[in-house]
Amino acid sequence: MEKMQKNIIYPKVSFWDITRAFWRGIRPQKWSLFFLLFLVLAINIISVITPLFYKQFFDVITLAQDKAQTAQSLIWIITQIAILHGIVWVLYRLHAVFTAGFQSSTMARLKQQSYDYLMKHSYGFFTNNFTGSMVQRVNRFARSFERISDQVFWDMFSLAIRVTSIIIIVYFINQWVALVILAWSVVFVAFNIFFSRWKIKYDLKVAEADSKATGYLSDTIANQNAVSLFAKFNFESQGYKNVTDAQAKITRFNWNLSAVIEAGQALLGFSIEFFLFYFTIKYWQQGLVTVGFFVLLQAYLINLIDQLWGFTRVIRNVYSAYADAKEMVEIMKLPHEIVDVLGAGDLAVKNGAIEFKKLQFSFNKTRKVLNNINLVIKPGEKVALIGPSGAGKTTFIKLLLRLYSPTSGQILIDGQDIQMVTQDSLRQNISMVPQDPVLFHRTLAENIGYGKPNTTKKEIERAAKLAHCHEFIKNLPFGLETFVGERGIKLSGGERQRVAIARAILKNAPILILDEATSSLDSHSEMLIQDALSNLMKNKTTIVIAHRLSTIQKMDRIVVIDGGKIIEEGGHSQLLQNEKSLYKKLWTLQAGGFLAEEDEDPASAESSDVAKEEVEEE
Asked: Which residue of 261, 283, 343, 361 is surrounded by the most CB atoms within 10 Å?
């Protein structure tokens, strides 16, 4: 059964799905895994054999007649015990060294594999998930492997070896005692497995509650400024309290269930000790077992009870780790929404012509955003997209960048369907300056040079000057080597936008998209950057999204979108000549002040209603 969460339907994940996901990380070191299993096997077999020498030790003492000769025998026995302990000590050290290398390398690969798959999910996927939750899932996935491998190697595998070895050894001494140990072990293990499997649904709820609390925490920390500005501290504090209280409630219930199973274990533990010694005493009366057998039996019982007592914890940890891994494997099983077709080639851009043919797009197949868009942009042409908020302008651009896939229709660049080329080659040929640039918490130089591999410092400095970044960079403590903070928070909105422009200048792609590229700039900064943008747009096919119409007067063509359709297009002067033009109404509003209510016709009112809906950001 598939699980729906935050508008995403996650596929069902089985135990074998998680095992296969782990195996992909293990496979490059599979021989290390087999060697570790061999070491665990050797350690446990030697550990089970060692108590036989203690049995022999006490049998020699009880049958001793010549103390001098007996002492020599005893010394030889404890020497053999010491040798066995020494071998186990060496094997343990080898296991520790190989485990450290094996687990750390495998965890790194698992993180890399989950990161690579996660980052190829679509723009829509990330808009429906908390960043903090995604970070937690990647880290939990790697840690869950560490926990499961520890439990499997040192608990489950070790337990299987020890129980099997002990039963075989005891069987050759007394069959009935061996059968009692076998029956008790089966009951103990079955009880633990049954109870733990029943309890897994609550372990999953604990993991989900933890993810929810982490996501809420991440969301509010990332928006701390908004919380302060809207005086919402008490509201958010109560919201966080609600999710942590819910987490505490399910966690407390889970821990109480664990206490129940421990009580059942204790009952089984002292029961087996009583019954085994009761039967063994009977056999001792009949001369069928020696005193040394009591010592052997006690050593085995202590070992088994210790191993089996922790079996509940082992099962609980395995299922808990399973629940942690499950959340990441759900994402790794979820098909990528935007994928390259088989045999997709690289986009070759010679002229930069763009054509939208019968393009339609709907969110969730229910809310139509773009309807039958037909538009041809000539090589080197500068086209502005304008219209009310919610008209579909941003979605238009996201489809061109293949952040979404169209419901129907085609987008062609130089006659090549962008669905048939690789996403990387498409985006390498497009530069974009977004309305709200988000920077990495890295240096300014790294952020500016992000769009061009192996760029030189000289090229970065030139791009920074062309974008007028040098005017604020010169006042920073470390210049281009200054870290900008998470999401570029140390810079103002205008400074971040200039960095984004410098990045686009350096990338120098044949197609350029400007999404309100000067919206965060003051008049002085805008004047400085307009020249840089003019140089940037030379010989490039350019699409500009603008609300401030004064910035697009010199565009070759202005395309007006409303209600998901192109309702008019033409040059600035041409559109102003049409009295019924929406462009003219918008221009009049910005250039001449607000129209009186009585002068506003129904068409303008309808546009105002559309502006209230930010459909493309659903």
From this structure: 361
